[in-house]
Amino acid sequence: EAQVTQNPRYLITVTGKKLTVTCSQNMNHEYMSWYRQDPGLGLRQIYYSMNVEVTDKGDVPEGYKVSRKEKRNFPLILESPSPNQTSLYFCASSLRPGGAEQYFGPGTRLTVT
Amino acid sequence: GNSVTQMEGPVTLSEEAFLTINCTYTATGYPSLFWYVQYPGEGLQLLLKATKADDKGSNKGFEATYRKETTSFHLEKGSVQVSDSAVYFCALSGPDSGGSNYKLTFGKGTLLTVNP
């Protein structure tokens, strides 16, 4: 089954404790992206990747890092989480950018206290 | 930069009512347009899309037409069902100001509740 998986689905952590949210897709997609969803703000892009070892900032990259060492994986790293990073995070992938459909993971709900 | 404006919710309808959710956009060039749906507790899934002017996307009884002259992509359904209750997002995909990132730019979402 074609899918995007994220782990964990739910995470409660404390300020400053480094964490990683994993994202994996099994569709051989080149383009991957991270979004955060906040009430009243919709979804905003954090980082994206056009291919292996090619990543760039989206609209709200501050406080986040990513890496793309393999085509299927695109982890999101919060080196020193803060309460304003409490949000719902979605990973997405598509065959190519542009008009192609983006497939979304189920989401990771992160709470930073 | 690119932007999407969709009607504020929430929208509450009775079963079998007609649905319209308005969406307008601002973009450089010729973006692709999408409607995504998010059911409670789930990720987003594509509902329909249109990639060029005058294209009509349709799926599950929903329709939207890419209107370049009015920069709009309104979502419609003739007869909604309880199972259509969800959050609907209008989105566009087009190059950013640097021309390199074909990210999805989303509207803020419209919560639809359909009552039996």
The average pLDDT score of chain A comes to: 94
Mean pLDDT of chain B: 91
Percent helix range of chain B: under 10%
Shape of chain B: globular
Number of continuous helical runs of chain B: 0
For the termini of chain A, the CA-CA separation is 36 Å
Spatial extent as radius of gyration of chain B: 14 Å
Count of individual beta strands of chain B: 12
How far is it from the N-terminal to the C-terminal residue of chain B, by CA? 41 Å
> Can you tell me the overall shape of chain A?
globular
Low-confidence stretches of chain B: none
What oligomeric state do these chains adopt?
Answer: heterodimer
Q: Structural class given helices, strands, pairing of chain B?
A: mainly beta
Q: Give the radius of gyration of chain A.
A: 13 Å
The major pleated sheet of chain A works out as: 7 strands, mixed
- Secondary-structure content class of chain A: mainly beta
Number of strands of chain A: 11
State the helix count of chain A. Answer: 0
Name the chain pair with the biggest interface and residue counts per chain. A-B, 24 and 22 residues
Order of helices and strands of chain A: EEEEEEEEEEE
Helix content of chain A: under 10%
